[in-house]
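=== RUN LOG ===
request id: a7f3
mode: sequence -> structure
chains: 1
length: 585
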Amino acid sequence: MLKDENLKSKEKDASNDRERLVNSSKNNNEENGNKNDEDKIIDEIIDEKIKDKELPEDDDSVKSEEAEEELKKEKLENQNKQNDDFNGSTVEIVQPINLKSKNLGFTRTLLLALFAAMIGTGAQFGYALGVMNAPSELIKNDMNEIYIKRYNSTISAYNQDILYSTAISVIALGGVLGGLLATPLSDRFGRKTGLLLNNIPAVIGSILMVISKFIASFEAFIVGRILIGFSAGFGATVGPIYINEIAPLRVRGSFGACFQLFMAAAVLLAQVLGLDIILGRQHLWHYLFVVPIIFSILQCTLLVFTHETPKFLLQRKRRGAAARALRWFRRENNLDDVEAEIHEMEADFHNIQTNKIKISIRDLWLKPLLRKCFLILAMTHVAQHFTGSFVIFFFGDIILTRANLKMEYASYAMLSCGITYLAVAISLVFILDKVGRRSLYLYGLVGMAAATCVIGITILKSRNIPLYHMIFLEIFAMMTHVGFCAMGPGSIPWLLSTEMFFQSERAYASAVAIIVNWLSMFCIIMTFVPLFHAVGAFLFLAYGTMSCGFWLLVFIFVPETRRKTPERVQILVDKGTVYKAKHQK
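=== RESULT ===
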């Protein structure tokens, strides 16, 4: 009797699943309707490679493929009893989550560790991006005074802008060095220790920028900016690693989006503190750079109460410490659940040791498939900056004053951009795992292209149309640009490095991608002022044109990575089926 009821229940579930699959494919032709062609191509290639034993194994792909095969077999058995037409369905089935244990969700200790990691990484990064805009004129005035004291002459407005651009852009040089050293240092000393050590350059750099006004040295300010960049680059690598290794699978996507959330919140904080009613005054602006010291103190204090990541402790063969750390993060009293998760981590390490293919950084270029994947990843990072994404945060006041808005009002207008950035970052925490990465990137580029063109047009027309028309339109365009940037190009490239590459390849791919990203930022920041002086509003029309060009490249070459193993993603890239699978009949 019970068996009959169970069988009927399973048949009913299978019938409901089929209805959901059919409705889903009808409602979303772009993603699910085209997915059959794409998955058929992938499955055919996988079958061929399995026969020839050409397919490299990876710890992530092996595990996910085994689970997927078991689920497919069970699904097909139920479906065979109801309707043979669904035997060949290629829609991916997500493994159900076991909710019996509390260790799969948020806990107070987990949130404490998340806040401790992000306040000194994501917040430091965001504050460094946003703090220079509001006091830009104040900083240039002090640089001019220092120049007069040294050389008994004033510095031209153009040279002031160049010197100011240099002070902003050198953060990227520090970021390159910090990003390169982050992985080896955190692998040697640990994630938690790496985060603690990262506060040293942050504090020293902040002190140099604060005292630069008192010692009349813009060189000290620039050196401090480089050190802050090192801390930002280091933290942008180690921070996400730390939270990824402590987060349960169920909330890992949300935790990953928290880096950009803290970054957006810090950008807004920097804009608020830079207002003339707070610290945006000639005798107070240097105190803006005390805030990173506060971030560092908070992080060091809170990290004392947290643990090293269990995965790193297992790598160091400290199984007992790993179990204690995992129990602390999960607040789990059931030792069997802790032991089961430890066994799962150990199985992952075993797969890495037995299946990992050893590669070097040269293989990213020498191996054709890795070269294709890396060029796609690098292109998404270049597009992040060459579409003018961070120009708004660094030079927003200059852009608005070019449209005849007074400087004292420009800082208040920039608050709208910070609020927009934060709102989109919050929404990403909830939707990132539900929407395709490729779609977000494409929509983001479309919005940015339109917004940059509107910004350029408003600057051109600001002298012929009443001021308030153009100013409100330009502010709205800047808000739109920032929002679409946060939605796609500002966040997606950081996810692709983990979803396009096997675990044995990720460290090298991520490291080189970080270099590409920071160098792209350096090029855009250093060239903005001279180009803006030379061509004016046409620079934004150029950014809009480049956004259209990058949209075409992303549309043709970038695969959808959501809910796909690196194996499947690389097959799409290798066979050139990213575009073809969606348009063949």
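=== NOTES ===
The mean pLDDT is 80.
The chain has three domains: 38-56+358-585, 106-304, 307-356.
=== END ===
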